[in-house]
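Fig. S4 source data, part A: sequence.
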Amino acid sequence: MRLRFKATHVVLAMLCVMYFITYVDRVNIGTAAGEIQKELGLSNTELGLVFSAFAYPYLLFQVIGGWVGDRFGPRQTLFWCGMIWAAATIMTGFVHGLAALFIARFALGFGEGATFPTATRAMQYWTPAKRRGFAQGLTHSFARLGNAVTPPVVALLILWLTWRGAFVVLGVVSLIWGVVWVWYFRNEPRDHRSITEAELATLPPRPQGERPKVPWGPLLQRMWPVTLTYFCYGWCLWLYLNWLPLFFKNNYSLDLKNSALFASGVFFAGVIGDSVGGVISDRILERTGNV
């Protein structure tokens, strides 16, 4: 008997892989930082500037990228985002100075900035309303998994191919994901050749008529506590993502493999926490009757 996967499950799996890859490509520099710093002769201040280069365009394109995802749809938007961040990752393997490294990381932030809001747009129409919390939790758990496995994986790639080869390999993986995504995904679930009527019946209907105006005042009042929480979360997360491998390597005189192992251990709890948090949020939403 032929095994057949539901189209909705395949789309969710591909988004999970995307979350995984984007976090691998954004935190790989933390593991490779010691080798990069030594070869390029960077100070800690210059290395910190390189770390921050990703965040500037990422901040901007989280907002603009969400509009782009609405305008052009998740299929094309995520494909081109994937091409940009893949090229930026590969380019990192060929840099020979601070300026080029900064530009490569800046381009990576530009490419990844639109991915999460656009992925949320894709999930909105490909996930039943009662399962959105689970879908968000699962995709974010794959992001934490990407955090956790990046240090040992990048360390092994560095030992095998040097840090330059490691970035090239990871960039090629991103290219492959982008091609598979644009080949399989469709903005409209009904346009997908593999989706069934039973699956379509579980998905939320598309809104009809003129798009309502955004109530910015009430929206900002509801969003500012979440925004403040996410700011504090991002501040702490960025510290762990970028500086933790160097912290273990320099402060405890660990080699590359052992520092990567200790750094990865910090993120494995997040894999569980994100998944459980998504399930709990679905339960709370269902109990309050706001589905």
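Fig. S4 source data, part B ends here. The longest helix spans residues 132-184.
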